[in-house]
Amino acid sequence: MEYVEARRAAIEQRITEAVGGVEPTELGDQLEHVVLAGGKRVRPTLTVLVCEAAGGAVWTGAAEAAAVRENAALSAGGEDALDYAVGVELVHNASLVVDDIIDRSELRRGSASAWAEYGYGPGIVASDGLLGEAFALFSRDPRAMECVTDSLVELGEGEAIELVARPETEREYMELARRKTGALFRAAAELGAIAADADGRAVERFGEYAERVGVAFQIRDDVLDATADSDALGKPAGVDEALDRPSIVQVTDRSPDALNRLAGEQSERALGALAELELPDGEAKDYLQYLAEFVVERDA
Residue 267's domain is classified under what CATH number? Predict the structure, then answer.
């Protein structure tokens, strides 16, 4: 979709700018290694598309920038949305650096993981550096700071549950997925709505939509880890079983097809939350609907 690719390109450019000037150079190199290695950019794209679906405008090129900047309100929203999108991606990558250390995973997106490339200490420093750069992008708006802080608390609790409490039932696992993955998806969407200056109800509905998408994403991720091969995933497969890490595959006796249907149920609930907003037709709305379906169908 050309529309979405233009926004991803704008996000990619802003990510490069955000990590390109980090000092000292060694830290900047580590951040670039982590963030510029690729990725689907699902969360930052979600931020930008929610902003537009909620009535904001995000410029993606020079000509568009000139037109949007004639309207100060839209320009501010678009600039905020791009910054928040980049911040969300930096937070996500910071969490992946830690995940790879915990899992002893040497591969991430087809390249050496941060700790495998630089060592454990520099890997942890890189994660901290990513968080620092992210919060600098959120700092202009207290609502954005609160949103991201809440998501990090949930993410930290999810990691603790995974390592210590170890869910043993489907219900416990779904709560883990909500915190571990859904919380940052929720933050990504809420930040887009905040950038568009949406009202509280809209922020909440967009957040619910995204949280459901995130849970569906995590369920599908667990299924892929158990059924796909490493080359297709761009990272080691079978990690959950090898590390005895809780996954939906391990805590239920459902088949992969049944688990995919469970992910589909979350997708349908996400679409229901989106429908409550009664958004005007447009490419942003179309993509948000597509995303809820894609996370269930993806193969990598």
Answer: 1.10.600.10
Question: Mapping DSSP to helix (H, G, I), strand (E, B) and coil, where does residue 38 land?
Answer: coil
**Own/partner long-range contacts of 269-275 (Cβ < 8 Å, ≥24 apart):** 269/212, 270/208, 270/209, 270/210, 270/211, 270/212, 270/213, 270/216, 271/209, 273/205, 273/206, 273/208, 273/209, 273/212, 274/205, 274/206, 274/209
Q: Kindly report, residue by residue over 219-274, the tens digit of the pLDDT.
A: 999 999 888 655 655 556 566 666 667 889 989 989 999 999 999 999 999 999 99
CA dihedral over 298, 110, 95, 128, signed as positive or negative: negative
Q: How far apart are CA 135 and CA 132, in angstroms?
A: 5
* Domain count of the fold of the chain: 1
The whole model's pTM is what? 0.89
Task: Give the range of the structural domain holding residue 54, as residue numbers without chain letter.
Answer: 2-297
